[in-house]
Amino acid sequence: MNILICDDDKEIVRAISVYLENEGYQVFKAYNGIEAIDLIQEHVIHLIIMDIMMPKMDGITATMKIRQDNMIPVIMLSAKSEDYDKILGLNIGADDYMAKPFNPLELVARVKSQLRRYTTFKNLEVSSYVFQTGGLMLDDEKRIITVDKKEVHLTPVQYKIVRLLTANAGRVFTIEEIYEKVWNEHAINPENTVAVHIRKIREKIEINPKEPKYLKVVWGVGYKIEKY
């Protein structure tokens, strides 16, 4: 399973990585909340170890943004031991909390516990990363998109858009929502940027891009992937 460690202290990240890799986990490393969110969109992550105090984007803000899209288990770390940090972290969606300094073996035990709970109660399996509507299928673990069993090659940004819409087939996303979720920044006049990518995606996944079967516009609202 894949674990993301996010802490601006590189020595702490390195130390935790050693313990987790010795247990057979694959580790991804980030040093602020922005990097963590980027990695989550690029890779399948099964658990996050998130520090609270970091530059650029702190762990509280990052966790709140992550919780908008998924329920990956989050273990929060903090150099402070006050109850306020623990309560705040748990209230915004963290699953567990450890105050620094901590015993690495205890952290590994908590990682295993959270993964057991997640796989049991959230039914985390490879199939949960496969989204399909009609002949359009997206395998998020392999990062493969096929249409009628033929693989389609998309750019990373195009993939993110299709993943967002396919995982929520039938739901209409505004242009602003698509931009903010894919680019991770506030949308300022995103219409042209999103429209260009939508057009290129249609050219790749639709038999007739002018009469799309999957990627449809809802005039005055936004775009959606049709649910079949």
From TrEMBL:
Superkingdom per UniProt: Bacteria
GO MF, one example: DNA binding
A Pfam short name: Response_reg
Record-listed 4-aspartylphosphate modification sites: 51
Residues of the OmpR/PhoB-type domain: 128-227
CDD domains: REC_OmpR (cd17574), trans_reg_C (cd00383)
Keywords linked to the UniProt accession: DNA-binding, Phosphoprotein, Transcription, Transcription regulation, Two-component regulatory system
Residue ranges of the annotated DNA-binding region, renumbered to this chain: 128-227
Domain Response regulatory: 2-115
Gene3D superfamilies: 3.40.50.2300, 6.10.250.690, Winged helix-like DNA-binding domain superfamily/Winged helix DNA-binding domain
Subcellular location: Cytoplasm
Name of this protein: DNA-binding response regulator
